[in-house]
Amino acid sequence: MALSLEIEKPLPPRILIYGPEGVGKTRFGAMADRPIFIQTEKGLTGQAGVQKFPLAKTFQEVMAYLGELATQDHDRHTLVVDSVDWLEPLIWAQVCKENAVNTIEKAGGGYGKGYSMALDLWREYLTALDYLNDQKEMTIIQIAHAQVKRYENPETEAYDRVGIKLQEGKNVSAAGLLLEYADIVLYANYYVAVTKDSTGGFNKDRKRAVGSGERLLYTQERPAFRAKSRFALPAEIPFDYEGSFWGVIAGAIPYFNQGQPNSLEKVDNT
Predict the structure, then answer these.
(1) What is the pLDDT of residues 83-95, one digit of tens each?
(2) What kind of fold does domain 14-255 have according to CATH?
């Protein structure tokens, strides 16, 4: 009996990048190949010449912009959503509007049902992103801020780690959904070394953080932060100001190495 097999076509990556304020997350998206931004916050200050939709003030406006990209001809190769943690309040507001309540906790009668309803809207949004990724062959970049969260590891004692600044619960988790959706989760941060000196009181060593301003993109999860890659990326990529990190990322992704027009090796961010 002959097997019915399909060969999956390579697609551009779906990237989630997060980190502290001012580390360069928006610039990361602006330096991608032919980007267009959907803004939920005013983060494009200083990024002159970048194409963007008007600032989205509702979830329906975000979905309308995604619909325009899906149905109209355009020359954009990359969609950048800046940022998903500012998108979350718009989703919650939509849930409240549909349920005629004033807080997400009251939606659906309470008991966390509002967050489940919000997750349905997140899935609707991600489905629209998938259409652009699959049918329009657009690279997807979602930007998020970082937040230190308590991690209840069942194998060890609980500890703090850095994650994306989105709702996260045991049964319903917007953060978990977006982390699962992404092919690459990049944690962007400054390199910091911890040194000891003997200037502490009572003859005790004092630990001191020392930074050089060097920025890194972390691609593999560690106890201190969330990260992942479905491609063979190095664990750390220098997050330089010239944009050479895009060449490193493109070199590990099959889509960019098969003669496709959307190539990050030669970036056109106009």
Answers:
(1) 999 999 999 999 9
(2) Rossmann fold (3.40.50)
